[in-house]
Hints:
Blueprint: H1 13-21, H2 23-26, E1 30-34, E2 41-45, H3 58-62, E3 83-86, E4 89-90, E5 109-110, H4 113-125, E6 130-133, H5 142-149, E7 154-159, H6 166-174, E8 177-185, H7 189-194, H8 203-213, E9 219-224, H9 231-243, E10 247-248, H10 261-267, H11 274-285, H12 300-307
Parallel strand pairs: 3-6, 6-7, 7-8, 8-9, 9-10
Antiparallel strand pairs: 1-2, 4-5
Helix pairs in contact: 5-6
The structure holds iron/sulfur cluster.
Amino acid sequence: MPDARAQLGGERLFRRRTVVQHPRRVGEDQLLERDLLGEALQVVRRSVPGELRSRPLELARRRAQSELARPASEQGASESGAGAEIEASRGCPYHCTFCAKENFRDRYRRRPFATILAELDGLIAAGVTYVYFIDEIFLPWRQLLEAVAARPVQFGVQTRIDLWSREMLDLLGAAGCVSIEAGVESLTHEGRDWLEKHCKLSTQALTELLIYAKRTVPFVQANLIASGDDAEMVERWRDELRNAGVWANDPVPLFPYPGSPDYRRLWGVPDDNAWERAVDYYLDRYAKLSEIQDARPRRLAALEAHSG
Ligand code: SF4
């Protein structure tokens, strides 16, 4: 994760997952809020006792993508120089049923190469040594990886391992990637098809790529979603990956994110109560959430009442 003092915020799926499925990574000292437009959730980290950091998101949303170069101070760069967020692309060409990208981050488009590099150089000049690419999906991009490799910065990405060749994984590691979060979701073709992953590789091939990536990337994580996979098969697979240094989570129940096909199938087009409805639905059904989660998330009405 980037610098713990940097504010985490955004409309990105990963962050939403973090809130609902991995709250310990968010921590008890954080609050879950709706953003100003009521379209997304925002995680606000209490970096100093009594102080909340928050960043409205609507400006970034309204600007054209090519205009999105932001000063380092607005990207989470802290005085200690640890980390910041950056974006190489927006959207994703896939349409997984659980992914909340339909409303604002559907179509895949890259930001201009020169803009990304100028932004990255600005961050490095400001003392940043780690960036997290907040792209919905960080796709292989040789030109970008070669440029990042020439710079003194490490980075983390979220991607699909099935889209990477061994050669490109080598380049990813050589470029300074220290963290990969890869959505595998299910260990069967049927499970991946149910989630509409459109994954062309076998589970064995996915496994080999994850383990291969670990040769050059220090942290590799495979995400699993509860999709009907046999529990013993999942445990065996997790052990196999763990033995190779790759972490895979205990499958987490699906959350019907507003903006995802799953939400639309259940309730149609999201309205003003979409997030309340989705969180209530989730909490009503699942007593056990993520394995790394001790606390139970509170309902949004309770959080809003608490924050006044
Ligand atoms: S691959 Fe699927 S889960 Fe990942 S960003 Fe694309 S649609 Fe979302």
